[in-house]
Amino acid sequence: MKINRRTLFAGTAAAALTPAARGSSATPAAAPITMSGIRDAAVDLSGEWHYSIDPYRDGAAGFHGEAPGFGHRRYDVIDVEAYMRDHPTALIEYDMALSPTAQLPASWLTHAPDMRRYVGLVWYQRTFQLGALTAPRAFVQVGAANYATTVFVNGTQVGSHIGGFTPFTCEIPAGLLKVGENQITLGVDNAATWDTVPPQVTDWENYGGITRDVRIVLTPATFIDDAWVRLTRDGRIAADVKLDGAHAANAEVRVRIAGLGLTLHGSTDAQGVWSGKSSPPHTLQLWSPDSPHLYDILIEGAGDTLHERVGFRTIETRGDQILLNGQPIFLRGICMHEEELGAEPSRNMTPEAARALLTTAKQGLGCNFMRLAHYPHSESTTRLADELGIIIWSEVPVYWRINWDNPDTLATARAMISENIRRDRNRAAICLWSIANETPLGDARLRFLTQLAADVRALDDTRLVTAALLTERRTQDGKPLMVLNDPLADHLDVLGVNTYNGWYSDDPLSSLPDIGWRSDYGKPMIFSELGADALAGFHDTGGAHKFSEEFQAEYYRQTLAMTEKIPFLRGMSPWILKDFRSPRRQHPIYQQGWNRKGLISPTGDRKQAFAVLAEHYARLAAQR
């Protein structure tokens, strides 16, 4: 299933709505439909699907590289049993109707025991019923499928997508759907290479499959493709709306905020885009972790309507401070992978699963901040963060050893940035867009990441740009000195730093508070990671054994003491809330395929370090 990433980028990454971005190379032509996730007119395809593994990709291409022939195309609309009975000479080497079934969304890791380590192509198929075809246009909307996906409806390919963590839509050509039974087939390939984003070596589970909802979304002939409503840094309420369809130009648009008694309105331009601003009324309540106020928004245009919920706040930096609504804030955070609680997680982050984790962070640890690592998380999570009042760091999986010199890899990363930002620009909780994690220095890497930083600023000028950086270790006055020395810092607003002294170094824990930190950039720094492994329930009363709860707790005590001596530190998100699956981690007793740096176990048991961090955050909250 070879997909040209340059063509894909042009076809799936969407145009920004701001005037500056529309003239930028960061904004290729739009592909509808950004706001499909909140449309009520839809057929939910969650539930039972048939699946068929295809390790040699037989259903995608013949063995000489030609198009797959009859008898191999799993997306054909055919009753295989009946056809072979009626045509005794025919050979068909699959039968989707007789293949095993799985409940989706869920990674194929949980479909069957022998799929635990499967890497390759899997075909998913189901039928769905449609009544009268009253909507002029229809789309397949996929919340996420990891990693390369091709979509077929009634045997016809309607689209493809690269990237395992951002939503995409494929328009179904007129006349392809029919009243009654229809068939949908998705070919999903989770194979990673050094050219993919992320690359083939990471520190988390490669959850292949369809991990978020699939829906058939129905729209008018001209519909609201995108709408971005926010508070600008100069304190004005701004709205951008983009219509798609034959009557998108010169159409009347309204954005109504009933809770403020405010309506913004106007007419779209020749491209179907309208932008408007207004000073807010004095009754405006700003969103914050202490008061996460959200307003109901009604968006109208060309006869179409959408309902959104939006919070209004500003986020900026001044010197080495981070300012929320003009006031300094210290980010008391934690990192989280998209993996639900349970002994056998499948990356099915339902609203209930997200709430269990986010409330543990907010109410249990006292967090006002979370880093969603290392890729865009589900919309269930980001919308819940809005509701609960948790500031979010959202990132794309530009991770470790990306192929910096490959223009297709850059195009893929840029598409992910665009898709991530466009989906979540209305989430007040998201305050930081991150472009990379722990990437080694080099000229090609700097060019790559500088482009991503420019893309973020073109697509969203209301939030902060960050990345998780590495540091240089030196010695000063006989003591360790950690130095931030990365030219990418010049292109960032907030400097994220991952630090594991005492775990990945042989520093005695008692020496950690004396480690010095230096940054000459005059910008706020966040410890985007710090942590140590512990197997829940494993104890060493002496506290010296790595992987014991006592060692992890002492690591936190000493590292937190170090943080209090860093004058330009403006937050932290220790690694990590919950133990998560990672094939890299194979100690037969303490890891068994799990990264054990969680403060809670896979099933939610709290380790000793949980209380250490919670007490520290309670003191910080009381001081500020």
Q: Could you characterize the architecture of this molecule?
A:
This protein is α+β, with helices and mostly antiparallel strands and 624 residues long. It has three domains: 188 residues, Jelly Rolls; 78 residues, Immunoglobulins (Immunoglobulin-like), CATH 2.60.40; 308 residues, Glycosidases (TIM Barrel, Alpha-Beta Barrel), CATH 3.20.20. The chain has nine helices and 36 strands. It has an eight-stranded parallel β-barrel with strand order 24-25-26-27-28-31-33-34, surrounded by four helices. A hairpin with a 4-residue loop joins strand 16 and strand 17. Helix 6 packs parallel to helix 7. The longest helix is centred in the middle third of the chain and has 18 residues.
Please render the helix and strand layout as text.
Blueprint: H1 5-12, H2 19-22, E1 42-44, E2 47-54, H3 80-86, E3 101-104, E4 106-107, E5 121-130, E6 137-142, E7 145-146, E8 148-153, E9 156-162, E10 168-172, E11 180-189, E12 209-210, E13 214-219, E14 223-231, E15 237-244, E16 252-257, E17 262-267, E18 273-278, E19 295-301, E20 304-310, E21 315-318, E22 321-324, E23 327-328, E24 331-336, H4 351-365, E25 369-372, H5 379-388, E26 391-395, H6 407-424, E27 430-437, H7 443-459, E28 464-469, E29 472-476, E30 479-484, E31 494-498, E32 516-519, E33 525-529, H8 549-563, E34 569-572, E35 580-581, E36 594-595, H9 608-623
Parallel strand pairs: 24-25, 24-34, 25-26, 26-27, 27-28, 28-31, 30-32, 31-33, 33-34
Antiparallel strand pairs: 1-13, 2-3, 2-5, 4-12, 5-11, 6-10, 6-13, 7-12, 8-9, 8-11, 14-15, 15-18, 16-17, 16-19, 19-20, 21-22, 22-23, 29-30, 35-36
Helix pairs in contact: 1-6, 4-5, 6-7, 8-9
